[in-house]
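User: Before I run my own analysis I want an independent prediction to cross-check against. Here's the chain; please return only the structure tokens and, at the end, one sentence I can use as a sanity check.
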Amino acid sequence: MYPHHREREQPIFSARAHVFQIDPNTKRNWIPASKHAVTVSFFYDANRNVYRIISVGGTKAIINCTVTPSMTFTKTSQKFGQWADSRANTVYGLGFATEQQLHQFSDKFKEVKDAARLAREKSQDKELANTALTIAAPQDLSDELQSPPVMCVNGPEDKLFRSQSADITLSSEKERIKKMLSEGSICEMNLEAELFTLQDSNSKLVAALHEANANVEQWKKQLAAYQEETERLRDQVAELEAHGGHGPSDLLKDELTQSLEELEALLKAKDEEIHILQSKKSEYHEMEHERDEAIHRLRETEMRNSELERRIQNSEQNLNNTLEDRDRMDSEIQRAIEILDIKIFDLNDLRQSLVKLIDK
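Assistant: Structure tokens:
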């Protein structure tokens, strides 16, 4: 299908650029569609009056976009621009080697878009005219209007008779044509109403697209840093290619850039983790030292407790022995008191006996 289109299409403008497509999943990241800068061309199909943007990478068409009046090419940086293709449900991005190439492509895009708008309006007007003509002059009517040849059989009178008959036939056909033209006018009004509806829908779609492009501005700001880095790498690759060198492919470059960013982020995270661990290490040494001191104090406390427990046990044993000795002494003293009481009673009896003897 592609070679067939190339036979009837003619290139009108070409530029070299790196081609990208938006990631269909995230709608934020760019996916390289070519490994290096490729030719991006505007083609014009004179038969269909259609403009297309075509770019081929190897044996595969990486861009096959029909330009419509609702498309808008947006410059997001000094060397990068993009546009949305609603039919392919994607967003194309082009990275150029110089700012001048970007301006040339943008101007040509605007010119082609205006030409596509004019071509669409002419095509719509032509379709309306063809529809009215088709209704006003159908095939069977043209066949009926071809009057049979008049043959001269009876002289001038026969010619007059056939002329009057032909005039009657033509007048009746004119009436039919007028009637069909009136019906065609009604159909044309209906078509104009449908065209107005389609134009209104198209304007709404254009407004929605502009609103979507406005919403993309915030996304563009978020990618500004990444695009600047990408542009710098593109400049380096372009310089290498200009000097005949073979620079790394954009895909490899982007992969390396992404890997480098991931490694830098990982290295930063590891440095922070090491810093945290080092701080924790000093805290751990202090805690370990405090733990050793606490263990030493605990062991000393345990030893003191053991000594105190031993001393308490000895004191309790001594107290028990002392209590036993005291009980034993108390019992002996009690017996001694009882003996002394008996002795005192006996002495008292003896004293009384002696007093009685002395009185006698």
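Sanity check: Strands lie at 9-22, 30-32, 38-45, 50-57, 60-66, 74-75, 80-85, 90-95.
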